[in-house]
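Tokens for chain A. Residues wanted.
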């Protein structure tokens, strides 16, 4: 069913489904054959009775492995994995009833009136003009010059939305549903900020537990309009919130440029007919599973991606930046993860659970502020650690801006964007709970 929903959503973008038709068709064929065999009446040639222990054993094994790894293993298909996930959820519920608290004895002294933390979706750091002189897809951002403090191509915490966003909001290196810690909203409230969430992507319940949601003062969803309109609405709502003088921490989840990318900008053509899509599926049945990507198709994908970035990223800041009062505001921008643009035979865009392409971790990272106590330190950090920043550096930086003492923050959460080393290995995590480090360099 998840596969069928994906096909339905992407039905207007036939080139995006091309790499997957063979895999989909083969698995559907296997499912049909197995179902047919098991449906045969019991008798001499029936496998239903003789081999019924095989699926039962598979189910038991998957449940055991899923529970043992705390849900970190994502390799199993949904029909087998559901039971294990239910058990993991059941044994993890006790901690969700306990509210996370900030263990800090002093009174924070915020360095800025407003903090805007923008997390985009699927924006790859080397596919924007700021970090690639061969591109011209973010002319407005490029035109900001020194007003924009660019950290270059940073490395995401993980290559999948769920784990990456959890790490961005918690500062954690590992996601464990049973281990509850205070997140950004709890720290912001502790520092006297009003907490606001502007969400253009999906229901926050998908990525937040009850304790985290309880620390949000104002929640503003922007999910009822077409995807390509949502980021425009986000900019409008963000400016409305910033018009208030009350100190505010604003967490923004843009719609961004999630695959399929043509959802992120206005369509210029009619989608193909259902009959044409079905005919294409039949055509792809004859291809080998590891076929080489057609150069023209990849070129169309990249062009669509760049166009989406121009509309969703550059257009967003063109609407927002001229109206920001940076003398009292800190804006930090990044993306949850990067993308694989079908290089080197990869057929997935992100969330690879083994041997991922490094592009899945390439994200942009920049700051906008004119607050004296912050601007100079940001510029020094960006100059020294250009292309070396990590998602894990953001959380402690935000705590410093909220007024928590630097020695306490560094001892608890490590490096920040002010003190980046000029050389260090870039790494990110794969699997749901950060089970494996992958080195980018």
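Reply:
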């Amino acid at each position: 069913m998840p596969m069928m929903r994906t096909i339905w959503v992407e039905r207007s973008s036939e080139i995006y489904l091309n790499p997957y038709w063979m895999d989909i068709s083969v698995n559907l064929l296997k499912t049909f054959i197995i179902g047919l065999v098991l449906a045969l009446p019991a008798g001499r040639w029936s496998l239903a009775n003789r081999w019924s222990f095989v699926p039962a054993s598979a189910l038991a094994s998957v449940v055991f492995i899923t529970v043992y790894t705390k849900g970190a293993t994502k390799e199993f298909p949904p029909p087998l994995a559901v039971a294990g996930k239910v058990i993991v959820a059941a044994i993890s519920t006790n901690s969700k009833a306990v509210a996370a608290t900030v263990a800090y004895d002093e009174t924070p002294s915020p360095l800025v009136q407003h903090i805007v933390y923008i997390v985009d979706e699927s924006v790859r750091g080397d596919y924007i003009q700021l970090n690639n002189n061969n591109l011209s897809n973010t002319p407005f951002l490029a035109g900001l010059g020194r007003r924009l403090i660019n950290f270059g191509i940073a490395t995401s915490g993980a290559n999948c939305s769920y784990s990456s966003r959890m790490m961005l909001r918690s500062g954690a290196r590992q996601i464990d549903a049973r281990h509850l810690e205070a997140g950004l909203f709890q720290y912001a409230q502790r520092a006297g900020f009003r907490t606001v969430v502007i969400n253009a992507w999906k229901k926050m319940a998908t990525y937040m537990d009850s304790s985290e949601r309880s620390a949000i003062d104002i929640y503003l969803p922007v999910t009822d309009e077409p995807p390509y309109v949502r980021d425009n609405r986000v900019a409008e709502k963000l400016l409305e919130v910033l018009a208030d003088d009350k100190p505010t921490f604003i967490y923004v989840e843009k719609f961004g440029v999630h695959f399929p990318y043509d959802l992120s900008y206005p369509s210029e053509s009619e989608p193909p007919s259902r009959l044409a899509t079905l005919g294409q599926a039949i055509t792809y049945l004859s291809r080998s599973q590891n076929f080489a990507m057609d150069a023209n198709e990849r070129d169309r994908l990249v062009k669509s991606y760049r166009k989406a970035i121009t509309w969703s990223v550059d257009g967003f800041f063109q609407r927002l930046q001229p109206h920001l009062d940076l003398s009292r505001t800190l804006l930090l921008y990044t993306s949850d993860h990067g993308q694989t643009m079908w290089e080197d035979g990869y057929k997935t865009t992100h969330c690879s659970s083994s041997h991922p392409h490094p592009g899945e971790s390439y994200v942009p990272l920049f700051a906008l502020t004119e607050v004296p106590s912050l601007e100079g330190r940001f510029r020094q950090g960006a100059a020294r650690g250009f292309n070396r920043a990590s998602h894990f550096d953001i959380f402690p930086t935000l705590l410093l801006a909220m007024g928590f003492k630097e020695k306490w923050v560094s001892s608890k959460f490590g490096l920040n964007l002010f003190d980046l080393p000029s050389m260090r290995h870039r790494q990110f995590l794969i699997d749901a709970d950060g089970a494996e480090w992958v080195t980018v360099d």
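Strands lie at 114-120, 149-155, 194-199, 218-221, 248-253, 329-335, 362-369, 427-430, 436-439. The radius of gyration is 23 Å.
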